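Lab meeting, action items carried over

1. Structure of the two-component assembly. Owner: GW. Status: complete.
Input record:
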Amino acid sequence: MIYGKLWLVVRPTVGIPLFLGAVAVGSFSVHVALLTNTTWVKKFLNGAAPAATAAVEESTQKAAAAPPTLVVASAETVKR
Amino acid sequence: MADADSGSDKVWPTGLTEEQSEEIHRHLIQGTQIFGFIAALAHLFAYIYSPWLK
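Predicted assembly:
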């Protein structure tokens, strides 16, 4: 096996924790970087609730924005 | 660099034999392959079920 004699010169008690630690730190930092530099990971990890809430808020805002025209129209109707 | 004093095939500075070193390395490579396979599977699932790259 290629590099099989590595452990003749590197103590396994040093080399193996170093190797596993490098893998752990590397993969963890990549995922932390993803979490901090993108928006979708946080949204995805928070689940569907915030998206549903946002949709409800959006529809509520639309509904709140719409009635005044209707109210005005009905008021005009009453005046006539 | 075999240790002639003890009459074994130990090699210094670690004091392991070539066979022991090969065995450690074999297990480490196998562990890495299993880890890599699981990680690849996890990334596949993340690609399918998350908004990643979409």
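2. GW to write a short summary for the group page. Key points so far: The helical segments of chain A are 12-37, 40-46, 49-65, 67-79. Chain A touches chain B at residues 1, 3-12, 16, 19, 23, 27, 40, 43-44 (CB under 8 Å).
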